[in-house]
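hiii, so i know i said id send this last week but things got crazy w the move. better late than never?? heres the sequnce for the chain we talked about at the cafe, plus the structure i predicted for it. fair warning i was half asleep when i ran it
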Amino acid sequence: MTLLGIGDFARAVRLSAKALRLYDEKGLLVPARVDPVTGYRYYAGSQVERARLIGWLRRVGMPLGRIGEIVAMEPGAAAEAVRGWWGGVAAETAVRGELAAFVADSLAGAPPGPALALRSAALSDRGLVRGENQDAVHAGERLLAVADGFGAGGARASAGAVAGLRRFAEGPDPAPGALLGALADAVDEAARQVPARAGTTLTALLPAGPRLALVHVGDSRAYLLREGSLSRLTRDHTLVQALADEGRITEREAASHPQRARLVRALAPPAARPDLQLRIPRTGDRYLVCSDGLTTTVPEAAILRALDGSTTPAHAARTLVTLARAAGGPDNVSCVVADVAAD
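okay and structure toks below
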């Protein structure tokens, strides 16, 4: 077997010797031979493609730990994992970009813009199996929220979380530069309403001038229907979603996974770590906030048809709950639907 010294190999794969030594230390690209006296590294020609793949993945910013998982996969699975990872990066970058733009506008003293006009409706149903409804919902001009409680005090947890945000929504508007801090304080207040040994998901939309602030933790969801296309705005904080994001399972496998309801983040003492987005809505947009009692029983294609085919938010909410019950209603199901109207 012909071996290449580290210098020749580095030139062949367009990586530095320093990078190759790092990849050796991390176990990503172990030399075919190391001289026992000099410690000089030699590589086989068969390692060229692996080295190039590692180099390209590093160029797009993938962490070394994730690269190690991908280079160990079969090509098809590796390709799917790279696409999934980049989709998450792109979505996170877009969210951070909107937050950065908001902060920049606040620092520059830009006027906040006209307030949003929302027409909304909410409906919550116990379902056909559960003995208690532990969901809580709110639909109003200043707050759209769904919380799905769990544990012995689940109903109190969800109701308390929504009440905490409602107090924020009913208070005076914070200055644009103070909005993000005020939202963080509101979420902390919502978390303080959650009793010990209980927890809740929380997904909420709050108008903030011309923007919508989206607060999310858990596996309730928010969707946007715009010009006939349905977009999911949140990522589930579940073990199964984490596995799908890492490319370890497919989205189809995630939908039927036995641990799909296992949360890795929720609103529960002692701390809350929600995701925060700022979105720019358009007149004609329709938003849906819902508990997983809808999304685990009703396919997104059917959700799209129900939202697109309903004349009013109340009609849409009733249709969605009816679909969940027709699918067996194994869980509480809650929906808040809101239309962005011309002010």
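btw The mean pLDDT is 87. thought thatd interest u
miss u guys!!
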